[in-house]
Amino acid sequence: MTELDISKDFTIDDIHKIREYNWEQTKNLSPKEQSEYYKNKAASFLAEAVITPVTKNSETKMVM
């Protein structure tokens, strides 16, 4: 599987396609390389969706 083809209706079959695609991409990678692969994919998704992740080191204030 070289290309990921997701339907516009996004079904359970699409989830299976994504899992299979990621497995094909990472099956020969070391655990460290797999971790980097998924971190890069997540960062790419967040950037495309214009989402700023909150890290554990961020200060948060609780309002009571």
**Strand count:** 0
Which oligomeric state applies?
Answer: single chain
Mean pLDDT: 88
Give the helix proportion (percent range).
40-55%
- Unreliable residue runs: none
Largest β sheet strand count, sense and barrel closure = none
Please report which band the strand proportion falls in: under 5%, 5-15%, 15-25%, 25-35%, 35-45% or over 45%.
under 5%
Indicate the radius of gyration in whole angstroms.
Answer: 16 Å
Spatial shape: flat
Question: How many H/I helices?
Answer: 2
Q: What this model shows, in words?
A:
The protein has 64 residues and is an all-alpha fold. 52% of the residues lie in helices and 0% in strands. The protein is flat. The chain starts with 11 loop residues before the first helix and ends in a 16-residue tail after the last helix.
Secondary structure blueprint with pairings:
Elements: H1 12-26, H2 31-48
Summarize this structure briefly.
The protein is an all-alpha fold and 64 residues long. It is built from two helices and no strands.
From the structure above, extract its key features.
2 helices, mainly alpha, 64 residues
